[in-house]
Specification:
The chain is mainly alpha-helical and about 140 residues long. The chain has one domain. About 45% of the residues lie in helices and about 10% in strands. The protein contains five helices and five strands, in the order αβαααββββα. The strands form two sheets. The chain has a three-stranded mixed beta sheet with strand order 1-2-3. A hairpin with a 2-residue loop joins β2 and β3. α1 crosses α5. The longest helix is centred in the N-terminal third of the chain and has 20 residues. The chain is globular, with a radius of gyration of 17 Å.
């Protein structure tokens, strides 16, 4: 739950940052590289990663989707490169990007797979993003 909330906050922060700076030609977007085997897994109990992938695959199978496959490092980096270099600033500013495209908002009443595309509409909502920005300023005692 905390991991998901931190990712939502990351997206909202980029939306608020983009709103503040797009008039100066500075754009921001949140991006998801996809599932990549990294050193983060070293903090997991033995067998925990395999169990997680098995659970994801069971959910995907129930939805009639192909099994999950980890991306290679270059495949994961592709979205970062696309977002920062290839995509037009006006196309991606204030958005959530994945798999080398801007992700679509997913309605709150739609069940999202553990591995899915898109993000909840509230994650890219400018009002929610502004509230997070203000709360962050309040918590650190600074105005940015």
């Amino acid at each position: 739950m905390a991991y998901g909330r931190s990712k939502t906050a990351n997206i909202q922060f980029s939306v608020a940052f983009d709103q503040r700076h797009k008039g100066k030609g500075i754009r921001a977007a949140a991006m998801h590289p996809g599932g990549i085997l990294t050193e983060l897994g070293r903090h997991m109990e033995q067998g925990q990663l395999e169990a997680m992938v098995a659970q994801i695959n069971a959910q995907l199978a129930a939805e009639g989707k192909a099994p999950f496959k980890f991306k290679t490092v270059p495949q994961g980096a592709a979205t970062s490169v696309w977002t920062g270099v290839i995509a037009g600033a006006d196309e991606m500013g204030g958005t959530y990007c994945e798999n080398c495209h801007v992700g679509r908002p997913v309605a709150d009443d739609v069940t999202i797979s553990a591995i899915s595309e898109g993000c909840r509409a509230y994650a890219i909502d400018s009002i929610a993003a502004e509230a997070l920005w203000k709360k962050s300023e309040e918590m650190v005692g600074e105005t940015f």
